[in-house]
Amino acid sequence: MTDVFFMERDPYAPIRHCYPVSKVLYHGKSPYQEIMVVESPHFGKVLILDGVAQCDERFEFIYHEFMAHVPLYAHPNPQDVLIIGGGDGGVLREVLKHPEVKRAVLVDIDKEVIEVSKKFLPTMACSFDDPRAIVINEDGYKYIQDYEGEFDVIIVDSTDPVGFAHVLTTEEFFKYVYRALKEDGIYVGQTESIHYHVEIVRRVQKALRKVFPIVDLYTAVIPGYAGYWWTMSIASKKYPVREPSREVTVSTKLYSADMHRYAFLPESFYQRILNGDYSF
Ligand code: SAM
């Protein structure tokens, strides 16, 4: 065991996670954020942006599988997928497991996150050379404004909603997402935890409901994220999202057809979150 620790600076969490560190593998500053990769006993390598742990080698599969496979299996034939953020490559890896996908465009504002992930996190950043992957370094808010009826699924895998990531949780952005989706498209975005961030969850859900006819919330327990009980907000133009629409065939560690159903909150609890009578 080591005596050196990294203490997280999560702008929204009322608690600080503290990771034992056996080695600092990278520490730099891009034009957008401070980037760090540390080696931690138990977790393996941990990617840290602006003091907040984004993913660790041991448990990253949970977040990445649920971000990718819930929307992709809710859709009957996802061919064109847009990922905004996701520079560590974990969501891209999962998206490209679907043979239906012909094109996965990843738009991360910060190319240095991608370069650092390729070098230090090769089990996550393992799909950037796939011929179906297209990588663009631009602000996702700007990028999406140029598209109409282009994508089957849009996944927003961004950092916490502060600074340049905040705009990705606004009604204005969701209007662009709606327009960029095909007529039966599906959107998903990470919306923080139920217990520490219920106001953010409610705000995003309300904004999505102003734009999309079908909106829902599903969750996964992520050991490295403050509050653990993490939410994903999903919105669909046409298809119901609580069930996979086709047989689950991709190889995963946790996601499956029954875990897809299980991930969605019971209707009564979901309504309490929306109505604001689950607050503390
Ligand atoms: N899984 C992580 C989590 O939930 O905290 C997020 C991982 S991924 C590394 C987040 C990425 O979002 C970062 O690389 C950051 O550069 C990118 N990002 C944040 N805001 C963005 C924006 N407006 N446009 C494009 N990429 C953005």
From TrEMBL:
Supply the CDD domains for this chain. Answer: AdoMet_MTases
Sample GO molecular function, one term: spermidine synthase activity
Q: In which pathway does it act?
A: Amine and polyamine biosynthesis; spermidine biosynthesis; spermidine from putrescine: step 1/1
Q: Its Gene Ontology biological processes?
A: spermidine biosynthetic process
Q: Its Enzyme Commission number?
A: 2.5.1.16
Any one Pfam family here would be: Spermine_synth
Domain of life (superkingdom): Bacteria
SUPFAM superfamilies per UniProt: S-adenosyl-L-methionine-dependent methyltransferases
Please list the residue ranges annotated as the PABS domain: 3-237
Protein name as catalogued: Polyamine aminopropyltransferase
Species annotation: Thermocrinis albus (strain DSM 14484 / JCM 11386 / HI 11/12)
Q: What is the lineage of its organism?
A: Bacteria, Pseudomonadati, Aquificota, Aquificia, Aquificales
Question: What is the gene called?
Answer: speE
